[in-house]
């Protein structure tokens, strides 16, 4: 099974916002980073993957299965980690283990104990006394304890201090040694993905702009800098968006080869970060 998640022509409309005709494949055994500004449609898409929202049109499949006929089976195989508190605040981890464990066929007490130990989490303290980082670790420990094949994370690093963010990312890298495990990770902190993502899916205003490997993104997208005298109707077609300044122009391209062939040494070509791509795509023209 190559794709763990498949969304085909998925549409969901709300008053004043919609995600439209989303086509998205999440490949097994890799980390896919899901990027976009706040309000771009990341959480809506994730909620449809989790069956918390039903699409108005289109098809959502996980592990090749449909929620209508295989909901329990799908949910057995997913772990969900997000930045809010999913648990009853007054409960401690011992209570949560007792409640959550029996709900999963593949619940493993040994794995749970291992991660509680590794994450240095207290078993007897109420969840409400945990820091945001500790709550995140508790959520992840529970997902791993029932051997989730797909871990979906919605903005897991938002609001965490930089040291804990690095720790969490290192931990996710460790988890990916298991080639059957897949992580789908939504974030607006794009630097997090430079370290761990294999694929990047970019959503903007409810539409998927691209879904490509990190290597592919690095090979195709670049920032181009040069004098404004180089710009005219023929040369501007190579750029998604151009910013002019008295000192020259800076532009984003997704066609490095044509830029090199057209401008030669007259321009400077630099690697575009994911943040650069998001910034320039806003209001830019995308070349499909």
Overview features:
about 290 residues, alpha/beta, Alpha-Beta Plaits, 2 domains, six-stranded mixed beta sheet, four-stranded antiparallel beta sheet, 11 helices, ABC transporter ATP-binding protein, nucleotide-binding
Q: Tell me about the biggest sheet?
A: 6 strands, mixed
Number of helices: 11
Distance between the ends: 28 Å
Give Rg in angstroms.
21 Å
Strand order of the largest sheet: 6-7-8-3-9-10
Query: Which architecture of the largest domain would the CATH scheme give at its second level?
Result: 3-Layer(aba) Sandwich
**Number of DSSP-assigned strands:** 14
Measured by DSSP, the beta-strand proportion falls in 25-35%
Specify the overall morphology: elongated
Which consecutive residue ranges, at least 5 long each, have pLDDT under 50? none
CATH superfamily of the largest domain, by name, is P-loop containing nucleotide triphosphate hydrolases
Number of domains: 2
Structural class: alpha/beta
Give the SSE string.
Answer: EEEHEEHEHHHEHEHEEHEHEEHEH
The helicity comes to 25-40%
> Roughly what is the average pLDDT, rounded to an integer?
89
